[in-house]
Amino acid sequence: MENLLKKALNGDIRSIARIISLIENDTPSKDELLKRIYPLSGKAIVLGITGSPGAGKSTLTDKVIESFRRRDMKVAVIAIDPSSPFSGGAILADRIRMQRHTGDPGVYIRSMGTRGSLGGLSRGAKESLILLDACGYDVIIIETVGVGQSEVDIIKIADTVCVVLVPGMGDDIQIMKAGIMEIANVFAVNKADKPGVDRVAAEVRLMLDLVKDGEWTPPVHLTIAEDGTGIEELVNSFIAHSSFLKERPEGRRREWRRLAFEVEGVLLQKLTRLAEVQWNSYRTDEIMDLLLARKTNPYAVAEDVLQNIMPCDRADHRVTEEEDSSDVAANDG
């Protein structure tokens, strides 16, 4: 492991890929490895790119990579694909679109499955950021699977969030109602050579006027990813927002929020793992038969499992339940 980590930190692509696989598979050595590399992270710009399916996010990301490379910045991309329902692995469509960068030692591209994560970002994706940051990538791009209520998870790990819209899909207003307006730092209205682009841009600006909060006003860029139109201006906005965060108190508040989310994520992962182990040891045919016969219930069984993890005074617990029942009765009266 020591030699593997050393190679990864020196930029060896295969070693980076192997360690990310260890992270994704939640191997026993993962936590110690992340503890070691965490002090080396915190330097990269983390950019989230999200938008409706069909908005051209992958083509846009491809051009954004190109722009950053012209500025001599190393770029890593984590393309979040829907997990295969059979293997749990990622569908590699995004990596295929960006394959022309695979020969560039300054670019690393990895497809990852959502693995059932409701927010669209698996724990492995979040932890892989730490590794890529420590390995010296200047920019880490997270391209998410699409837009929806759960997709706002991207704000928990990205410094700058770019929402990609496209004219003619009929879902622009729905996107704006889904909480996306609040998380976007930059907007890209892609496929700007299509009819209706000016209307979409005007609607975004109108909505921004209504929800404006803070010193940063998200710019709205018209882009044509296919030929690179507007990409340089878009990347300039990404860099400008990164500088804004470093210079303003908002950047410190955002970093605190991200770190709080990170600690919560680690806690939830460890508690979930511990609960699964306890349940598997507690589960017997007798318990399952009692559940099947309705002689006990999942809530009581879960409480017994939790008692093994976090012992507490059951008498106090019963008193609390009795007080709750009294309160309910009093309110009903």
Task: Write up this protein.
With 333 residues, the protein is α/β, with parallel strands linked by helices. The protein has two domains: 42-247, P-loop containing nucleotide triphosphate hydrolases (Rossmann fold); 261-332, no CATH class. The protein is built from 13 helices and seven strands. A seven-stranded parallel β-sheet has the order 3-2-4-1-5-6-7, with helices on both faces. β2, α5 and β3 (107-113) form a beta-alpha-beta unit. α1 (2-9) packs across α2, α4 packs across α9 and α9 (231-247) crosses α10.
Quick overview:
By secondary structure, this protein is of the alpha/beta class. The chain has helices at residues 2-9, 13-24, 30-37, 57-70, 93-97, 123-134, 172-183, 197-211, 231-247, 249-282, 285-292, 298-309, 314-332; strands at 45-51, 75-81, 107-113, 139-143, 160-165, 186-189, 220-222. It has 2 domains: 42-247, P-loop containing nucleotide triphosphate hydrolases (Rossmann fold); 261-332, no CATH class.
Q: What is the alpha-carbon Rg in Å?
A: 23 Å
Net shape = globular
Helix content: 40-55%
Give the strand order of the largest sheet, numbering strands 1, 2, ... along the chain. 3-2-4-1-5-6-7
- Total strand count, please? 7
Gap between N and C termini, in Å?
66 Å
State the major sheet. 7 strands, parallel
Low-confidence stretches: 83-92, 314-323
CATH architecture of the largest domain: 3-Layer(aba) Sandwich
What portion of the residues fall into strands of 2 or more residues?
5-15%
